Amino acid sequence: MSVAADSGLGRREATKLANRAAIISAARRVFAEMGYGSATVRDVVRRTDLASGTFYNYFPDKESLFRVVLEESAVEVRARVRAARRQAQSLEEFVAAGYREYFGFLASDPEAFELMRRNSGTIRAMFDEPIFGAGVEELAADLRAAIAVGIVPELDAEYMAAAMVGAALEVGVTMVRREPPDVEGATRFATTVLLGGMERLGRERRAS
Amino acid sequence: MSVAADSGLGRREATKLANRAAIISAARRVFAEMGYGSATVRDVVRRTDLASGTFYNYFPDKESLFRVVLEESAVEVRARVRAARRQAQSLEEFVAAGYREYFGFLASDPEAFELMRRNSGTIRAMFDEPIFGAGVEELAADLRAAIAVGIVPELDAEYMAAAMVGAALEVGVTMVRREPPDVEGATRFATTVLLGGMERLGRERRAS
DNA sequence: TCGTAAGGTGACGCCAGCGTCACGTCGAGC
DNA sequence: GCTCGACGTGACGCTGGCGTCACCTTACGA
Question: How far is the CA of B52 from the C1' of D19 (A)?
Answer without folding.
Answer: 10
